[in-house]
Specification:
The protein is mainly alpha-helical. Helices cover 31% and strands 0% of the residues. The chain has one domain (1-51). The N and C termini lie far apart (30 Å). It comes from Glycine soja (Wild soybean).
């Protein structure tokens, strides 16, 4: 099962889609003067990699 909000490794969705959504959320928070919190999770260590 793939969550509908996943934007990477999905046909017809681009890696920058998440960044665009984040930008819209930040702009809306600023416009409405509502407090907001943004955090980024780095999943690099969660997956095996080849050196």
């Amino acid at each position: 099962l793939i969550d509908e909000r996943q934007t990477t490794f999905i046909k017809d969705k681009h890696i920058l889609h998440g960044i665009l959504i984040l930008n819209e959320v930040i702009e809306e928070a600023c416009r409405s003067k509502r407090p907001a919190m943004v955090f980024k999770v780095d999943f690099e260590k969660a997956y095996d990699s080849i050196s």
